[in-house]
Amino acid sequence: MGGVSVKGLTKVFAREEGAGIVALENVNFDIRDKEFICLVGPSGCGKTTLLRIIAGLERATSGEVRIDGKEITGPDPSRGMVFQEYSLFPWKTVVGNVAFGLEMRGVPKDRRLSIADEYIRLVGLEQFRDSYPYELSGGMRQRVAIARALANDPDVLLMDEPFGALDAQTRNRMQKELLALWEKTRKTIVFVTHSVDEAVYLSDRILVLTPRPGTVHEAVDVPWPRPRDRTSTEFATIRRHVLRLIEDGEEPGKV
């Protein structure tokens, strides 16, 4: 199960001199099990900080995050994280990278290699099982990172601009591949992006954050079935609405 509940969450970064920096303030939202959520908002609004708090990599100053009623107090295999920078071990092969988390959890070698191979097949990299990261393209490296996160069978998959460093063509292909994986695994996904187009294409709902201190400006439903036509009137309508929310929030005196 992967239902996420964020209540009254505030994050203040302390400074040696003067008042601290309030990154997030009184953030509240709920995510249903198996839901695909995108977080968007102006640069510096706290999207990545919020994701890291859900992952247990940062501690909130106040408020709480719960998954299926259990409060998050630190990192846990029930939450998988995929970063923009791939974060692969260059000295390990594809199968070694995908199996790493299982190895750290003490899963026997035969079993962890079997699980790793299953997810390598799922992301279509069987022919590159024994390749090293430097031998792979950017899109292939990110597929390895996704396979590594999924191999631990997390309830929630957290993705921090995972396709931000890719060229447009590869990015569009990875979006389609991610949706195919989501349909197969039905994991709850929380996906940070700067691209409103990407958010509308991927998500069930888009959470629009305000400028710092970030809080939820509006939750926008994206009700149409997938795959979605980026050239359709419905797509353009939602895209314009989300862009307007972001732009309104950036204007002085508006939230």
Automatic annotation (TrEMBL):
ABC transporter domain sequence ranges: 4-236
Identification of the protein by name: Abc-type nitrate/sulfonate/bicarbonate transport system, atpase component
CDD domains found in the cross-reference section: ABC_NrtD_SsuB_transporters (cd03293)
UniProtKB keywords: ATP-binding, Nucleotide-binding, Transport
Coiled-coil region: none
GO MF annotation list: ATP binding; ATP hydrolysis activity
Residue ranges of the TM segments: none
